[in-house]
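Researcher: I'd like a candidate sequence for this fold, 267 residues long. If you have to choose between options at a position, lean toward the conservative one.
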């Protein structure tokens, strides 16, 4: 059973995992150094633990203890309890849905492991915005895609904002980073995938012309600002587009993933 620890000193070193949650750069460094990630809100904390992630501690105000009693009973890590104003001071924001948990950051699988049993894969190249990464994971998971590959510079799916927007789908949709990004087209090809670059290039094919019987298919989306790299534009087996109404340049990248996953779902 979790030990309930009532605290009032915000300098207490046991609270260090929870400082300054609004400072993205500090958090990225601190979470990587300490091997942790944070889950926010009762539902997301629950999903993190139910999907097998190991908690290091919990932090909440007294009124949230009852709602998470079953998780606390089943856990042997401390649950730090502070009043709402102190939590806001420590974390830098008002935690609407009560509970926070610090969890062990898992070892990532290799791209080959992640691709082994997959048939539908999203490849994210250099997405910078955690909201987009979370939204793309949520869409991919909801529409039956099996796995995600990330470029080395793609934003972290286990960053608090990405987790929240994904509604926890980053916990169960397998993903890996391809460290040598130049080789990513070969990694997919060797695993038997036909690759489709999602692009606004004038010579790309409308996505509804892709046959529905492609056995193993990978969709590659590019960054918010520059779109796909020339390497992927050239290396993909096919280039596909979601035709836009006159005067509209592009979709938000997470929206484009949702449309494409629906169109190219396994059937
Ligand atoms: C916001 S867009 C990038 C726009 C960028 N200025 C460009 O010209 O590619 C981010 C990514 O979303 C995907 N995307 C957005 N709208 C799309 C569309 N209509 N068709 C295909 N892919 C699209 C592409 O993968 C693109 O690289």
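Model: Candidate sequence:
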């Amino acid at each position: 059973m979790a030990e309930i620890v009532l605290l009032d000193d915000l300098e207490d070193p046991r609270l260090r995992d929870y400082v300054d949650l609004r400072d993205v750069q500090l958090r990225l460094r601190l979470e990587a150094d300490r091997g942790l990630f944070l889950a926010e809100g009762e539902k997301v904390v629950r999903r993190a633990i139910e999907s097998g992630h190991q908690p290091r501690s919990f932090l909440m105000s007294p009124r949230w203890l009852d709602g998470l009693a079953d998780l606390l009973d089943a856990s042997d890590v401390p649950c730090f309890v502070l009043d709402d104003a102190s939590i806001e001071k420590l974390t830098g924001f008002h935690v609407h849905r009560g509970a926070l948990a610090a969890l062990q950051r898992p070892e990532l699988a290799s791209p080959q492991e992640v691709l082994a049993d997959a048939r539908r894969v999203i490849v994210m190249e250099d997405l910078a915005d955690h909201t987009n990464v979370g939204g793309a994971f949520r869409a991919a998971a909801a529409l039956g895609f099996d796995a995600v590959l990330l470029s080395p510079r793609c934003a972290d799916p286990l960053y608090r904002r990405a987790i929240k927007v994904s509604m926890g789908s980053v916990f169960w949709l397998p993903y890996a980073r391809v460290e040598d990004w130049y080789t990513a087209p070969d990694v997919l090809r060797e695993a038997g995938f036909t690759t489709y670059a999602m692009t606004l290039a004038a010579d790309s094919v409308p996505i509804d012309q892709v046959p529905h019987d492609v056995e193993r298919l990978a969709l590659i989306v590019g960054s918010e600002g520059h779109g796909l790299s020339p390497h992927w534009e050239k290396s993909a087996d096919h280039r596909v587009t979601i035709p836009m109404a006159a005067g509209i340049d592009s979709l938000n990248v997470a929206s484009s993933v949702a449309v494409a996953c629906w169109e190219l779902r396994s059937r």
